[in-house]
Amino acid sequence: MIKIRSSNSIASIQRKIKEGRGQGHFSEYKPWLTVHDVPSIGIVTRILGWKSGRLHHYLSEHFELAHHYQMEWSEQVIDIREQFPLLPLDKTLYIAQKLGIKHPTDPKNKLPIIMTTDMLLTVKQEESIKFIAHSIKPSNKLLQKN
């Protein structure tokens, strides 16, 4: 299967927003990135979610997929949205500037990249609904500088 590299142009970002990427809940949610958008050196997975009734796109079988299964079995988690975009871009640029961190950029066109979190969970706790972002990384990757 041919992998298509996701473009980071303004037109590409506007197209994704128009397509509804990163929007919706449950079966209506469309991830910002799919397994076809990003080249992977590992094993990518598309799996039918029990709670959402839709295909979930994971870019790492051993970590994201395993965490997905744990969240599917959690009685508190009512929705799982993977590859969730951190928008608007201005906010992540501002946060990076305030923290003195270089914001990720596309190596080809040098434009800032729309970052995503691995999962945005909708969690029901007693009578309230909360949204909790999970970033899934193996411990040996946490201290690596890219």
Description:
This protein has 146 residues and is an alpha+beta fold. The chain has three helices and five strands; from the N terminus they run H-E-E-H-E-H-E-E. The strands form two sheets. The protein has a three-stranded antiparallel beta sheet, covered by helices on one side. It has a two-stranded antiparallel sheet with strand order 1-2.
Q: Any chance you could write out the topology, listing elements then pairs?
A:
Elements: H1 10-19, E1 45-48, E2 55-58, H2 61-73, E3 77-85, H3 89-99, E4 116-125, E5 128-134
Antiparallel strand pairs: 1-2, 3-4, 4-5
Uncertain spans, ≥5 residues at pLDDT below 50?
none
Oligomer: single chain
Q: Domains counted in the coordinates: how many? A: 1
By CATH, the topology is Trna Endonuclease, Chain: A, domain 1
Average per-residue pLDDT, rounded, comes to 87
- Main sheet, how many strands, which sense, barrel? 3 strands, antiparallel
- Strand order across the largest sheet: 3-4-5
Percent in helix: 10-25%
Gap from first CA to last CA: 27 Å
CA gyration radius, whole angstroms: 16 Å
Task: Count every beta strand, where a strand is a DSSP E run of 2 or more residues.
Answer: 5
Q: What structural class do you assign from the helix and strand content?
A: alpha+beta
CATH class bucket: Alpha Beta
What would a concise description of this structure say?
The longest helix has 13 residues, at 61-73.
Index terms:
146 residues, alpha+beta, Trna Endonuclease, Chain: A, domain 1, two-stranded antiparallel sheet
